Amino acid sequence: GHLDTRVPTRGGGELARLSQSFNAMAEAVQRSEERQRRLIADVAHEMRTPLSNLRGYLEGLSDGIVEPSRELFASLHEETLLQRRILDDLQVLALAEAGDLGYTKAPLDLADLASTSATAHRAVAAEAGVTLTADAPAPVWVDGDGDRLRQVIGNLLSNAIRYTDRGGQILVRVFVAGGVAILAVQDTGVGIDAGDLARVFDRFWRADPARQRATGGTGLGLTIAHRIVTDHGGSVEVVSRPHVGTTFTVRLPLLPPSSGAMF
Ligand code: ADP
């Protein structure tokens, strides 16, 4: 309901100031409750489609309207995997928002991480008819959680593959510029409309739900990636032109040279 929890703040002095800070607190609580309500509504909406697909097929099978087949069971299996991915991603997001993701940071070479991830994704890219090239010739040291940063790079690479048509190209580069570590993933894919660019990091947002579903995404990948990078003191930026391509640029603080080595 819309219970108004505010108290009047007329007049001056101690009591008015107290009332004002009480009101600020009440509004913060309301905002956080509103966010929680929206999250639950979003999750319910996202889980409904794979669940009702599953139910429809199972009912069809038990009524004898649908013929059992290998393809059918494969697609039912795929629906359960999608639900599992949504839940796994949500869990990561919830932990991150509670500040509880438990990062284990250590010095790591972003160039090496990017090259290894590129190698890991090359087979999937080849299957999609897309060339994936890494250009990360020199070590670039950052202080980070290797598994989580690998997840970020993996997400950017899978998106680049997913949203690039056959014959396209993906280039991942790691270098230092302006005193920060930079990782850029550039593709020659479908691109993103200018009006949508600000929304790509929103949870469950996708430009084209049908295509996204067909490619098995959850709409949470970039939300999580953005979160992980900002938790590392970095930033993510996206530049895109429809039908030309997209570049995601991650900036991370360089590992400070150890003070011992300076003297
Ligand atoms: P998912 O890929 O699972 O849908 P993401 O959060 O990773 O979720 O991405 C959100 C949306 O941003 C995608 O559905 C797609 O519309 C758009 N997008 C992400 N990366 C790219 C890209 N490289 N090229 C074009 N569109 C992209």
From TrEMBL:
Q: Where is each Histidine kinase domain found?
A: 42-256
Q: In this protein, which residues make up the domain named HAMP?
A: 1-34
Q: Where in the cell is it found?
A: Cell membrane
Q: Which residues form the signal peptide?
A: none
What is the protein's name according to its record? histidine kinase
What species is this protein from? Answer: Paractinoplanes durhamensis
What phylogenetic lineage does the species belong to? Bacteria, Bacillati, Actinomycetota, Actinomycetes, Micromonosporales
Q: Whole protein: which stretch is covered?
A: 317 to 579 of 579
